[in-house]
Amino acid sequence: MPNTYTQLYIHCIFAVKYREALIKPEWEDRLQKYITSIVQNNGHKLLAINNVSDHVHILIGLNPTQSISELMRLVKGDSSEFINKEKLTTRKFNWQSGYGAFTNSKSQIDSVAKYILNQKEHHLKRTFKEEYLTILKDYDVDYNDQYVFEDLLD
User: Which single residue of 1, 29, 135, 146 has CA 20 to 30 Å from 118?
Assistant: First the structure.
């Protein structure tokens, strides 16, 4: 649409089902490149991506022609299909349902990108659950503990 100008930066976080440590260092680079291609092929700009064994962070410049929910459906669906087709895990791979998506201003981009790129060091001191709950609180997101994470006993 003519005369439409946007600047939309979104930090997305999504976890392996049951937060299992299934993403292995031997293939995480392939996964990151695959997710990057999904984001870019859908007209968005990937600014940062990183993961640890149980979750992924991406920072994107969002093209408003596609919703965040549609992009995340494609990222999670296509990447889990890739992991399963390539037999990167010994059993069927799934992402947890849902995701976190948080807006950022242009002035925050460098610090959010650095945060994402330092995930491995960051998680030497803090679990994913601790990190995610802190992010929800920092962004003042209302949530119900019962629905934040899927556990094996659910």
Answer: 146
The Cα 78–Cα 85 span in angstroms is 10
Instruction: Say which residues have a Cβ less than 8 Å from residue 61's Cβ, sequence separation at least 6.
Output: 7, 8, 9, 44, 45, 47
Q: Which two tokens stand for residue 85?
A: 């087709």
Q: State which H helix or E strand residue 56 sits in.
A: strand 55-61
Counting beta carbons within 10 angstroms of the beta carbon of residue 89, is it exposed (0 to 12), middle (13 to 18) or buried (19 or more)?
Answer: middle
Residue 139 has a pLDDT of 95
Report the C-alpha gap between 61 and 72 in whole angstroms.
14
Structure tokens at 82: 């890739």
Mean pLDDT across 111-119: 97
Q: Rounded CA gap, 152 and 3, in Å?
A: 49
Average pLDDT on 76-89 reads 98
pLDDT of residue 152: 61
For residues 3 and 53, which has the higher predicted lDDT (pLDDT)? 53
Is residue 117 a contact partner of residue 50, using CB atoms and an 8 Å limit? yes
